[in-house]
User: Which sequence fits this backbone?
């Protein structure tokens, strides 16, 4: 593909894979009218999503094309580094192997707390709010009030494992709560 574009454009063509997106940089244009005349040629070769960016506005670093061992019957020309003018961004069908891109380390999202410690259930919101404040003052843990049908459930959130809840059973019982149990959030609520 690079050869076809190079032959058609008579410009330096560089193809890079950056973040799963193939970017084609074509340089060596004299002015913007030359770029405008070149866009129909790209469309002729099947490129439809074209973005023209001036060299000063890109964050692309010029990359030397990968050196392929020359074939026995055809000599490999020396190609200079890309310099100046617009780059064109596209996803081609086939890619010539280039210098491997330095990938940023992908950090997985932080785990979501899965377990909830149920402390009490009340028919009135004011009772649930009073219990919530009592638990927050004593244990200094995140507490929520969940409305379920005609009841208000006071729950302590933020536990990643069931075992993390065990030390708080006696604490809550000592505060006068008797309806204490732990449960796991459903997959939909996470």
Assistant:
């Amino acid at each position: 593909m690079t050869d076809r574009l190079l032959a058609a454009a008579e410009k330096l063509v560089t193809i890079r894979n950056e973040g799963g997106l193939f970017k084609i940089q074509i340089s060596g244009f004299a002015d913007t009218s030359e770029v405008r005349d070149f866009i129909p040629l790209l469309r002729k070769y099947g490129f439809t999503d074209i973005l023209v960016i001036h060299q000063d506005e890109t964050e692309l670093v010029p990359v030397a094309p990968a050196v392929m061992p020359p074939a026995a019957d055809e000599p490999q020309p020396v190609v200079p580094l890309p310099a100046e003018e617009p780059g064109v961004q596209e996803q081609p069908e086939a890619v010539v192997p280039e210098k491997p891109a330095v990938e940023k380390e992908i950090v997985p999202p932080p785990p979501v707390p899965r377990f909830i410690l149920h402390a009490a259930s009340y028919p009135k919101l004011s009772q649930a709010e009073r219990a919530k404040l009592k638990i927050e003052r004593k244990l200094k843990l995140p507490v929520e009030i969940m409305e379920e049908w005609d009841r208000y459930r006071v729950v302590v959130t933020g536990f990643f494992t069931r075992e993390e809840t065990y030390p708080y059973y006696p604490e809550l019982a000592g505060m006068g709560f008797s309806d204490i149990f732990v449960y796991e959030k459903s997959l939909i609520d996470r």
